[in-house]
Every structure is written in C-alpha cells, then in structure tokens.
Amino acid sequence: MIMNNNESNKSGKKGGGFDLRYNTLSVLSMAAVVACAVIFASAFYRNAPAEPVKGALGWETMRLDGDRDGFYVEFSHQAHSAMPKEGCVYCHHLSMPDDSVTPCSRCHRDMKGPVSIFNHESHAAYYKNRGKYCEECHGAVRAREHVKKCETCHQDYNRDLDYYLSARSYESAMHDRCIPCHRQQDEKLGEKMYNDCGFCHVKFPAP
Predict the structure, then answer these.
(1) For residue 185, what are the domain limits?
(2) Are residues 87 and 172 in the same domain?
(3) Tens digits of per-residue pLDDT, 71-90?
C-alpha cells in the first residue's frame, strides 16, 4: 500500500508524539529511582538522629526515658551486673574507641530509627592532620569494596562496615535486649509479669 504525502506526514507526527511520551516517561522513571535511592540512603545511613535520645538519669539505679515522655524504666545496675551468663557485656556489647563503657544512648541515638555511628568527618580530619589522606582507609582505588576494615585500627570493631552504618533505634535496642531475658525469667517463675508493659514502664513525676 502506498501512502500519499499527507498520510505520511500524519503518521510521522504520531510516531514523533509517541517517542516524546516514551522519552518523558523514561526520564520520570529514572528520576523516581534516583529519588528513592536518596531517600533510602538518608533513612538508613544518616548521622543526625531525627528523634534524638536523652541519656539516662542516675547511675546505680537509672531512670531510662529516652523521649522524656514521663514513663520511666527503673534499671538496677547491681541486679543486672550479677547476671550469670554475660553480665555487663550483654548490654555494653560495644564501646566507642578509647572508652570502656559507652552509654546505650550514645550509639542508639535515635528513638525510632537507625542511625550511623561511623563519623566520616572525624576520620578524615584525623588522617589529614597527620599528613595522610583518603588512601589511608580507601586505598589507591578509593572504592568501597577496598575500604580498610575497622578492626585494623579498632580491634573490637570486627563486623562489616554496614553494621556501624545502621545502629538500630534506641527503642528497638532496649526492647530486643530486655524482653527476651525477662520472658525467660517469667518461664522460670511461672508468671507473666514481664509480658506487661506497665511492669517496666511506670509513670514517674518529672525530676
């Protein structure tokens, strides 16, 4: 079938319109993918907490109230340090470099979401002040897969880097450490008091 010039021009215009819509859709799709990647990275690898945690009050008997909503958990150091299995290490499983017992709220700094405990700026400043630069950690290639392991300098930091880029929320860390152990106590005692949130979270007058 032979088309005349008018039909050919109309067909060309339709094809051009389709190509334009296709290209626009491709650009929008790519923009959406990039936006999602940025949101994901900012959510899971951020240094600044969205809901900063307040430190515990006291020491021997601490009052834990990370968001200062008035519902404190009273925590006895003496009772928990006498735990037969792991003692202090069960909670203080990792300390900051040059620190012996780092408070929970220093690493788990966000009440509801994960936050990075790796401070890139301090590392960059440390090496720059000593005449060394990015290659000290990243190597000549400067690719993430070639990054020097943390334990090279900090022997207690023997996990993959991602572990330190996403420390769980304060709420999650507290519950995941406390609840399983308390439930074991319930089974031993034949009671269910630790399954009740009100057993630990009690309303106290503001200090």
Answers:
(1) 61-203
(2) yes
(3) 889 888 888 877 766 678 88
